[in-house]
Amino acid sequence: MIELSGVSKTYGTAQAPIHALHPTDLKLDEGQVVGLLGFSGAGKSTLLRLVNLLETPSSGRVSLGGQDLTGLTAAELRQARQQVGMIFQQFNLLSSRTALENVAFALEVAGLAASVRRERAREALSAVGLSDKEAAFPAQLSGGQKQRVAIARALAMRPKILLSDEATSALDPHTALSILRLLKQLKRERGMTMVVVTHDIKVASYLCEQSVVLEKGRVVDRIDMGNPQPVSRLGKFFFETARGWTDDTELPQEDA
Ligand SMILES: Nc1ncnc2c1ncn2[C@@H]1O[C@H](COP(=O)(O)OP(=O)(O)O)[C@@H](O)[C@H]1O
Ligand SMILES: [Mg+2]
After folding, report:
1. What is the DSSP string of 142-160?
2. I need a surface site. Which of 77, 149, 150, 252 has the fewest CB within 10 A?
3. Which residues of 12-26 are buried (b: 16+ CB within 10 A; e: fewer)?
4. Cross-strand partners of 11
């Protein structure tokens, strides 16, 4: 479903170039959920944005469902991206539009006919349990409800792939778990393929079959979450974190 081969990203800046991601492979079968774990600046968001070519890779190839995205025209790429939904830490809702209008607007941008937009938006809001909030504005919704609207917006195009960038990082643990349950339900009921960026090992343990640990733009660990045996210092640190920190917990990086 997702195949990234040797993708890298170097940002040109006025000073030195920044190697945000060194050449990396990532392969997911349909219905698989993989976590991208790492500290801030590790290259997680960059790798995620390379999956749907929101970032143009400096090298390597990206294919989704067997289609190579790297050589597409802008119009073809827009079309291919419709199989990918995305959610973020900061919800990115339009404050002047209701929940229903936020979802419908995304469908309008994607070029769907006016006649089907409303019905599709309703269906998506219902799938996230927010049928009773269609007319609410973002300011009238809790953080968890806002994220549900954002998930509905991502689902409305009926994507096969969902990309999540720290979607629960701004939420309290109770709300975070309810959102994670919703994502797990989407995996179970729709067989959605997901890439889940997080710095929280609990998120990866709950949702992901496999986790890729990134450090300074490189993959340092690939962990089977069913039988976790981290080999890197950073991978081990994440699992220690889940057990709680002590005075003896080793910091994985001196400069953290
Ligand atoms: N548009 C950009 N221009 C220049 N540098 C960037 C840009 N986006 C990200 N970076 C840099 O690339 C590195 C990886 O960033 P990012 O992928 O956002 O990390 P993470 O999501 O793991 O926190 C960081 O050093 C960041 O500052
Ligand atoms: Mg990020």
Report:
1. -HHHHHHHHHHHHHTT--S
2. 77
3. eeeeeeeebbbbbeb
4. 18
Q: How big is the chain by its Cα radius of gyration, in Å? A: 19
Which amino acid residue places its CA nearest to atom 7 of ligand 1?
A: 11
Which ligand has its closest atom nearest to the C-alpha of 43? 1
Q: Could you tell me if 100 and 180 are in contact, meaning their C-beta atoms sit under 8 angstroms apart?
A: no
Could you read off the pLDDT of 14-43 as tens digits, one per residue? 888 999 999 999 999 999 999 999 999 999
Asked if 219 contacts 200 with a C-beta cutoff of 8 angstroms, the reply is no
Contacting residues for 72 by C-beta, under 8 A, at least 6 apart: 80
For residue 73, the surrounding DSSP H or E stretch is none
Domain boundaries, the chain: 87-158
User: For the whole model, what pTM was predicted?
Assistant: 0.94
In whole angstroms, what separates CA 120 from the centre of its chain? Answer: 22
- What are the pocket residues of ligand 1 if the criterion is a CB atom closer than 6 Å to any ligand atom? 11, 13, 18, 20, 38, 40-46
Identify the nearest ligand to the CA of 50 by its number. 1
How many Cβ atoms from other residues are within 10 Å of residue 113's Cβ? 8
Q: Which of 13, 3, 46 is nearest to 217 (CA)?
A: 46
pLDDT digits (tens, 9 = 90+) for 85-136: 999 999 999 999 999 999 999 999 988 998 899 999 999 999 999 999 999 9
Distance 11 CA to ligand 1 centre (A): 8
